[in-house]
Amino acid sequence: MKKFRKVLDGLTTSSPGGTIGSPSCGSAAGTPTAAPTPREIDVQETLTSDNFQLCKTVRHGFPYQPTALAFDPVQKILAIGSRSGGVRILGRPGVDCFCQHESGAAVLHLQFLINEGALVTACADDTLHLWNLRQRRPAVLHSLKFNRERITFCHLPFQSKWLYVGTERGNTHIVNIESFILSGYVIMWNKAIELSTKTHPGPVVHLSDSPKDEGKLLIGFEAGTIVQWDLRAKKADFRIYYDEAIHSVSWHHEGKQFMCSHSDGSLTLWNPRNTTKPFQVTFPHGKIQKDGRKESCKPILKVEYKTSRSSEPFIIFSGGLSYDKAGRRPALTIMHGKAITVLEMGYPIVEFMVLCETPYNNEVQEPYTVVVLLEKDLIVVDLTQSSFPVFENPYPMDIHESPVTCTAYFADCPPDIIPILYSIGAKHKKTGYSHKEWPVGGGTWTLGSHTYPEIIITGHADGSIKFWDASAFTLQMLYKLKTSKVFEKPKAGEGRSAEMVEEDPFAVQMVSWCPQSRIFCVVGISAHIILYRFSKYDANTQIVSLEVRLQCESEDVITPSENENYPCFSEQGSHSPQPHHQHPVSPGSRTPEGAKDRGPCLKVKERVVRVPPGYQSDLVIQLLWVDGEPPQQITILHDGLSLHLLVIILCMSTVDLYGATDPYQRLTRSPRRNRQSTSGSTHKHLWELTSHTCTHTQSKMPNTHTLCINSRFLKGPGRKLSLPTDLKTDLESRENSFSRSRSSSVSSIDRDTKEAITTLQFGESYGRKSDVLPTPCLWVGTSLGMVLLIPLSIPTDHEERMEEAVTVGPSGAVQMLKGSILRFAFLDCMGALIQSPYEVWRDLNAPEDPDRPRRRKLVHFSPSSSQDANGDGHLAVVCSERQAKVFLMPSQACLFVHNITESSFVLRADVVSVCNSVCLACFCANGHVMTLSLPSLRPLMDVNYLPLTDMRIARTFCFTNGGQALYLSSPTEIQRITYSQEMCDNLQEMLGELFTPIETPEAQNRGFLKGFFGGNAHAFDREELFGEAAAGKASRSLAQHIPGQGGVEGMKMAAGGAVGELARARIALDERGQRLGELEERTALMMTSAESFSKHAHEKCMKPQWMSIKNIQLPY
To answer: Averaging pLDDT over each range in 339-353, 784-798, 991-1005, which range is the top one?
Structure first.
């Protein structure tokens, strides 16, 4: 614990210009500055660097660009590989693990070591990896890099340690899974085919051992050649040459026939004893045309041939549809007896797998589920019901149902908000799902002790908003809100929305939510704002709309007159925002000029609508077109709904903000005319959301006035600010060049004449240095690093609030930082965070209760409210793209300053609670995540975590309390991270276990006759054929063995010394004892069987020789 004591005395008044130019505010990082204050600041900081560590926690969503699929039928876990080198392993809800290959190469094949707690991955860089799944954080144990051949197919027989690897050259190699060393046994393509064959058979597309005899390996080549290779004799049993290319092969469990899928949309059935031609050829979707020819069909990419005891076999395949039917969706076909069912999918099929009851390929398979991996979805089909219903997916695979446009993260929410949202959202869930248990139920997961309510909010391009329960490292959708229901459906190619945003007129730009008051604000791309209030009851309501027309200055005026400077605020005329007491008339009834100026982008529903329980629209604000130009998009939203105020930032003339304290004091040149930037200069408007302007909501919003900016306080020469679209263009232009320096290549005049408002914060503060008590204020930050403090004059009495206007005026308080202002926060004089006051939630649609208070109740959630009331002041934390400062209010003295970065810039900054204290968390464009102590701004953590390569990360990265953060790692996935050492220590407890000890199911007793006449698969010993003693060593130049790192958990165990060794030895001893017990049981069973066979053989010898063998009762 370190105590910071700062005695500040001396100067009590200073001009803003002096504060800006003070050398103290440009001092080194974390340096206290000589600042004026008559009192002593005593803050005990408890956070140290030992409280911070950065690591990934969990990833939610659908794997982006999936490529491969695998399933362990005993452990019942599912693995999905992706093009970026990631592997997602899924089990029961809560068991969700993400692994990433360091190379980033696409995952081509996945193969579980069934019930062994291991996974083999084959990547596009021709490397095999063995992953250990017996730890909560899987790690690579071995890697094998092929140098001269490309991997095309992998096959691992059940309970075998030898992996078959097919290559692009047509060769088949064999890898020892335990040592990950290549065997000297190789099946060369030129030996597999006949010597007389003149063409190359193509890459290996299939490998499988015969269910009848494991010593027979079936090899499928792309060009249409199929070879059954005798591993013992090292020769081909048979060769099949077919005209059509082969995509997949599937065995019947008895090994007497196999099925192939081909590029012409056909399925062929072959008998291994007669391979001259297939004994059955079918075109499932190829109808016979009038001329007698078959329809041309698409290739069947994969086929599965599964048998069942109680019904006909299942033949399941993807593709094969006819080319003639244009626009038909991708489909999965299920052939069961004579019934053919076509399941159309919403996205192309990447891979599918049929889940069966047994892991043995020589037993009746009994399929019960099909897992279908699509490009953007995961579908699981129930095969046990004739209607083939799908299972309800327990994983959050639909985050990207509509593209995510914004995110918000709230930790330590009120405990009652999640059950309420879930109960309302459950009423709107889809039905028709299978009632059976989710088939992927492997792993174990328990609710950890370090959990608290967390909610993630995602906004989407279609205007929908989803609330997710993110507690305990899980993600489950609670409630979905559709903002488009507020508006009439726009007709394609018509209206203002078509001219402004054709594709997604309802897209959500930003959200603001108060969990305590349950008030929710949404900003849309069509320059609209929707205010929602929560209710547990449905209601019939008429949506209230407020249309605002913004008149801008002429861009060509360089030195305007005083009246021209303030067209929006000088008089209450046509240039000020005009509230509408009723909905505007249709555009057809106006003059062309009126329709040109007054048409909104979207049309709000005018009729009375019935709204269900949940979030119900209370007010809609729309910006109108002006002079044929669309309204500017809203870039900042901050709610002071405890004061019934809402600030919507578009832009504003600098003179309106600075007044006489403009630090530049120069005349500006007019910016270049740009149609996309509108013909006027920029403005900012403050509006109060109240029902005095809308006659429909007098009962709902009693404190109702239009907030006015008093122009008599605004004097002095003005500068024009660039439009928010200019800022957006600037952000897009630097999307792939984040290492640039902002100020080095821009002239001082250009820098001074292009400014935009970047952040806002309501709070009770001291608007002027002479203030004794705090009053409502608005803190404004600009892109040039300017901080302005605007006091708000708000009538406190209920009746006065209904009649008098809320006024604002610049106080002259101006501070300056390096770079654009990003965040404001307030601390009391003891260093505790001052939360914004909020209004206690009250259900306006609830039945009348005489005991319920009708007036709203404000809660001031601040440890220092008593201190503020006594006028002891508070601390203001300001963070910009380059710098952070702490000011003492009301003296406005700079106490501490820290230069965060010089070579990059901060993208996101938040003041968050960690370990019962507060700190400033920053995410920079160069990928660094930093934390600074408060108020001293000491660096606590600086980790080079994630280089910013996509604006999606910058748009969605957000911090929250408890040392957590998230960002959209791909268009379909949310990555959560923690920077808290305490959470990193408890991470192992909170994650799920992938591997659970399960006894391997025993193989069915095949019977003596089947084993004697049908071949004995268990007599085949691969070690004798593939081991180094028999096959020799493979060429060193063919493949390179790379030892794995073993993972973080393994290194921690190794660091534990004797304790870790004993733990590993105990685990190994338990596993060995379990295996020895199983071996002993099998040995006893074999001895009993041998004794029985010997007894019956002796009886046979004692009987007359002429007796027929069919009369002997042999054991099975």
So the answer is: 339-353
